[in-house]
Amino acid sequence: MARRHYLVSYDVSDDKRRNQVFKTLHAFGDHAQYSVFFCELNEKELVELRTRLRSAIHQKEDQVLIVDLGVSTSPLEEGIEVLGRGYQPSTRVVVV
Questions:
Q1: Phi and psi for 43 in degrees, rounded to 5?
Q2: What domains lie within the chain, and their CATH numbers?
Q3: Which of 39, 44, 71, 74 is 20 to 30 A from 80 (CA-CA)?
């Protein structure tokens, strides 16, 4: 399964739901800005993320945007234009 880069942004009005969305996204990706995450996912992980987010939000009040940024074989940093303070990706460690 090929891995792809995704930008995920959310607008959630309720504190409890917003915290749940944040925790869910934090488990899948890197926190970039307030309600923005960069995730590197395969198809199965994307399905799991969508499922968790759908159960965390209110369908008529909240919004989550998932933007496909392409294959993960090219570094994400090469495709991001930054104005101001530079983007510093966090180092993710896999614990088995």
A1: -60, -40
A2: 4-71 (3.30.70.240)
A3: 44
Give me the amino acid identity at 93. Answer: V
How far apart CA 80 and CA 83 sit, in angstroms, is: 10
In this prediction the pTM is 0.82
Render pLDDT for 54-73 as a digit per residue (tens, 0 to 9). Answer: 999 998 999 999 999 888 88
The 3 state secondary structure assigned to the chain is CCCEEEEEEEECCCHHHHHHHHHHHHHHEEEEECCEEEEEECHHHHHHHHHHHHHHCCCCCCEEEEEEEEECCCCHHHHCCCCCCCCCCCCCCCCC
49 and 24 in contact (C-beta within 8 Å)? yes
